[in-house]
């Protein structure tokens, strides 16, 4: 049995650095003058600078650099695909292996928390402008932070009862514990930003209403509708979209009824998350079925490896054909057809999870935004990463300040 087999839902998969291991790792840093690692971060978190601080045992300075540049520094330290970003650019790649930038970032943010630092402060005097942010995911949180730091009154409107978007309702807690999300979001709340929860803003009509009360509006609603194939049996009990499944698991602290046989359909990171979550929830047999080849799967290589280490098979080149149910309308089996229409596959299933793509809700898809309204994050970029959403939110904050004729906070 491998190590990852033993992880239960909500248990942490990775050990954090302590002072000794963090110092050892920071000592490997070449202190490159041009810091290619820093150029690899879309949000400008500036690892070159914060690793230099850690190396000089200035943990406070390291935390300041991270928090000032990236309001979700804690979350990003755990969920960023570093291998494709900062660590890919690290000069040590050409020598042995890249500096573990994410783990050093987590170490600095832990120091911020443990020593009770309050790095960001909104100006006491407000400048008399009001902005509404729709959604409380990474894009809105980053946008709201920049605006609040410039003295703007910000209100966030969120449809669910907890803030964080995919951080809170999507990413599995073994990779992103709730206390890390809470600590990052507390930094946003401490800037005096108002959160209006359980408040859905309906597309263009809702945005126009907000514009009567606010000087500008940011739309960061992400992609919360799912693509599902219109096959026979799709409405059966026990069939979920990835969003429904992960949100349900998170809201119930992992206490959900799954059965023994779980099928996850898809080949992206979200499918991998659904499969690992099913395993951590105790399902005996979990399998992924994907319609293309492993090489074509959009999931990061590390994620596929992780899942394989858990003992989850990935069956490729089979597409969903039909869902068969018992007399209560509950899923019992699923049928697939091979890519060349020659072979058929029948698999037993107590739960089926479709993770084949997210899309914008109908009221935000192709929305024509009125003057003074700015959109960004997954809704605009089509669904990328947390750190990209932070970068997008920061960019929109600048656009909004420009629109309002407000200077950026120094
Ligand atoms: C399962 C899953 C796992 C992922 N894993 C990773 C990962 O490991 N690393 C990584 O970097 N990225 C990951 N991503 C991608 C990343 O989470 C997203 O790119 C990022 O969250 C996008 O941020 P956002 O603010 O644009 O949208 P979201 O995070 O989707 O936030 C949008 C918010 O708007 C709210 N909202 C929607 N409609 C309305 C409305 N009409 N009115 C009010 N509120 C509304 C939603 O409830 C939500 O809170 C993952 C995505 C998924 C789905
Ligand atoms: S590129 Fe790598 S070695 Fe150079 S400063 Fe950044 S982390 Fe250090």
Automatic annotation (TrEMBL):
Q: Which keywords has UniProt assigned to this entry? A: Oxidoreductase
Q: Which SUPFAM superfamilies match?
A: alpha-helical ferredoxin, Nucleotide-binding domain
Q: Name one GO molecular function term.
A: iron-sulfur cluster binding
The Dihydroprymidine dehydrogenase domain extends over: 11-116
Q: Which reaction does it catalyse?
A: 5,6-dihydrouracil + NAD(+) = uracil + NADH + H(+); 5,6-dihydrothymine + NAD(+) = thymine + NADH + H(+)
> EC number(s) on record?
1.3.1.1
Annotated ranges, domain FAD/NAD(P)-binding: 130-365
What single Pfam family name could you report for this chain, choosing any that match? Answer: Pyr_redox_2
What does this chain do? Involved in pyrimidine base degradation. Catalyzes physiologically the reduction of uracil to 5,6-dihydrouracil (DHU) by using NADH as a specific cosubstrate. It also catalyzes the reverse reaction and the reduction of thymine to 5,6-dihydrothymine (DHT).
Q: Which PANTHER family match?
A: DIHYDROPYRIMIDINE DEHYDROGENASE [NADP(+)]
Q: How does it assemble?
A: Heterotetramer of 2 PreA and 2 PreT subunits.
Q: What is this protein called?
A: dihydrouracil dehydrogenase (NAD(+))
